[in-house]
């Protein structure tokens, strides 16, 4: 059974960075894509970007270009999402989700979510 | 790139059928058969319910079905049950240069 387990909640100051991890088990990590999706309080889902670990290639939503970095460590089946220059609007639950590498592929397994709170 | 448009809320009585629409453009919903639907209960992660317009993952009830016509995709829930009360989001591949996926605005389904 595929499982994605994310790191715990974070509280950050404006202007700082946060790095969230997503450890996969029960599947073939490298050959899938790992997307990061966030959800602000009471709001909808927003795709941030994704990585295909076997290729080491990451794609980002233009909205987050320059502020987000998605990486993957194949040796530990773990993906990471780092968001910099944090502002209050980045307060949200951040999810990792797995899907086949083709564009538009469904996200069939999701992590439990990581709450990131940005507050002075 | 704007979010796909969904009705804010849809309601129905137990046993009834409801349909949620998801309207996009020819650059996303209308241009590709890569529409997915997700169910999200409060405080939980989304769950994939439909993929590639009309396919159900293993384990998802056949009360859930998907379709598409032009730039609008639809999710139908038949035989509505109390546990179907949740938020539902559509998503689509997009040919936009600014992102790969676009999500819908979300629909709150209430079972009366």
Give your account of this protein's structure.
- The complex is a heterodimer of chains A (120) and B (112).
- In chain A, strands 2, 4, 5, 6, 9, 10 and 11 form a 7-stranded mixed β-sheet that branches.
- Chain A is an all-beta fold and 120 residues long.
- Helices cover 0% and strands 51% of the residues of chain A.
- The mean pLDDT of chain A is 94.
- Chain B has 112 residues and is an all-beta fold.
- Chain B contains no helices and 9 strands.
- Chain B has strands at residues 9-12, 18-23, 35-40, 47-50, 64-69, 72-77, 86-93, 101-103, 107-111.
- The model of chain B has no long low-confidence stretch (mean pLDDT 95).
- At the A-B interface, β5 of A face β7 and β8 of B.
Estimated helix fraction of chain B: under 10%
Q: Give the ordered list of helices and strands of chain A.
A: EEEEEEEEEEE
The helix fraction of chain A, in percent, is under 10%
C-alpha Rg of chain A (nearest Å)? 13 Å
What is the global morphology of chain A?
globular
Radius of gyration from the alpha-carbon trace of chain B, in angstroms? 13 Å
Shape of chain B: globular
Number of helices of chain A: 0
Mean pLDDT of chain B, as a whole number? Answer: 95
Structural class of chain A: mainly beta
Quick check: average pLDDT of chain A?
Answer: 94
Main β sheet profile of chain B: 6 strands, mixed
Beta strands of chain A, count:
11
Instruction: Figure out the total of helices of chain B.
Output: 0
Low-confidence stretches of chain B: none
